[in-house]
Design goal:
Chain lengths: 318, 318
């Protein structure tokens, strides 16, 4: 964060300026989420990657803001889809202003993101980010169809989080070498860094939902459980469970056993089967791949920061 | 339609090809709306405007498909926002597959629209359509904030329909001269045609909601009334009403008087005050402006078709 503080001020200026509208509800609702404790993880990646490449300009400020707008639009729609009530320790926008407002302000931010990219004027950047957006939406729909489906396997899970989460991390990283006019190799390396970091990040998030005694980032603990989301801890615990445990998971994921006692049993099972520990090990493995993708870059503050970002992403589960 | 039949086949091919996804729910849900009796009004405008300019290529097929995707995404989200159950005489997607699926498939189509535009590669087209998308979303949010607000006036109403409906009509028309590399004057003329046609179209739609004995396009009659939408028939009838009528409108728009009897009284009031007739007259007036915007173009089949489109848009209220 310290490394890119000055650039982040530039990004924040773009964000604040471009979320304005004569329709007062738009900045009000968007501001609740954007100003409200977000980590700016994705724009920070764009900035840190640009720093890594010694890019001296400011073009990436608009693009980093666009990435954050896409992310915010996704969060607004996610909370509607999941009927969530808490995010980042605050009441969700859909709870305060209702689902219709969240859907429509999300659409606005998404459109505004494209306007920002078009203003930048790079067709290559537009290609990367419009494709990422389609992949994200596709992943969100796939997640929806997998919800409450106990038969969902690890491959499909990885496919879903690769799309819904890692695609935007990858795109956020890849736009930096594009504006810095770096080589294709560098583009691919940073895309790989972002992709693997994104998977590690989501795996960790999904572990946190069952690690009730750890930092929970303000999300309600057990949300995934009650929503019947087939995350890796569940997939592994189900695969390894006794007949009785498997019946429990079938009923729980089906939505018929979601009391606090059921959640406590689920937490106990994901621990005792080693599912949670292995999900964390997977996250660390993807984190290692992310760091390996940076191998060709010489030592620099930016490289250290990108390495620390991986550590931050995977250590949240403790 | 006959004029652009061959081009429309090209557009339909793009639409069918690009709404596909390995996630089966996406083409299933999107196809329900896209294949299901839509008039393809907006892509037809792109095609007819290109025909008017003698454009010989096929670049506009992708762009017309993108316009239809943006429109379809908007419809999916609109039906979620309004909790609608019927559209084009069929059950709505949100009723069949639920709100979450409609929100997310809408997001996918919206992203896919941008991918299509990026593939075309014209930054000018991207600027026009990304701006139109932001304006549409802004208009939708403004409409939401005006809902159940009896104080909403004619100016704000025109602002809302100019944004939520006419902006996409205008953009659909304007992209044609851009791909045909016509002059700025021609761009502005066709944009003006589309904008005014769009306003005429929406005014007529809003009249139809109170003209229960006329063609209703498969929408539920009285939907706007029950949703507390401040459309022009209500705005005029309220302004011209007696004290008792005004109290009725206040309660009805507030959501406290929305029975079938109340709807019958509303229909009677919008007729007796002349509100409906004047809203139709307004629609005709905007239709005339649309036709006037075509004045500089020489006589051609395309010009006749664009003129007939105006007649079609405003005559639906009878």
């Amino acid at each position: 964060m310290a490394l890119v503080a000055r650039d982040m001020n530039g990004v924040n200026s773009v964000i604040l300026e471009r979320m304005q509208s004569k329709v007062a509800l738009i900045p009000e609702l968007a501001g609740h989420l954007i100003a409200g404790g977000g980590k700016r993880m994705r724009p920070m990646l764009t900035l840190a990657c640009a720093n890594l490449l010694g890019y001296p300009g400011t073009r990436h400020h608009k693009l980093a803001a666009a990435v954050e707008f896409i992310h915010t639009a996704t969060l607004l729609h996610d909370d509607v889809v999941d009927g969530s009530g808490m995010r980042r320790g605050k009441r969700t926008a859909n709870l305060i202003w209702g689902n219709p407002a969240s859907v429509l302000v999300g659409d606005f931010l998404f459109s505004r993101a494209f306007e920002l990219m078009v203003e930048d004027g790079s067709l290559k950047v537009l290609r990367i980010l419009s494709h990422a957006s389609a992949v994200i939406a596709e992943g969100e729909v796939e997640q929806l169809t997998a919800q409450r489906q106990i038969g969902t396997g690890e491959e499909q899970y990885l496919d879903i989080i690769g799309a819904k989460t890692a695609a935007l991390f990858a795109a956020a990283c890849r736009v930096a070498p594009v504006v810095a006019e770096a080589s294709e190799d560098i583009e691919l390396a940073l895309e790989s860094y972002g992709k693997n970091l994104g998977i590690a990040f989501q795996l960790t998030d999904d572990v946190i939902d069952y690690a009730s005694d750890s930092a929970t980032m303000g999300k309600g603990v057990g949300d995934d459980f009650r929503d019947g989301k087939m995350t890796l801890p569940v997939i592994l615990a189900y695969a390894r469970g006794t007949a009785a445990d498997r019946r429990f998971w079938e009923e729980a994921i089906g939505g018929d056993r979601i009391s606090d006692d059921d959640l406590a049993r689920a937490v106990s099972l994901v621990r005792s089967t080693g599912a949670l520990a292995d999900a964390i090990a997977h996250a660390r493995q993807y984190g290692r791949r992310a760091i390996d993708a940076l191998a060709a870059f010489p030592v620099s503050k930016a490289k250290s920061a990108l390495t620390e970002a991986v550590e931050f992403a995977v250590s949240r589960a403790y």
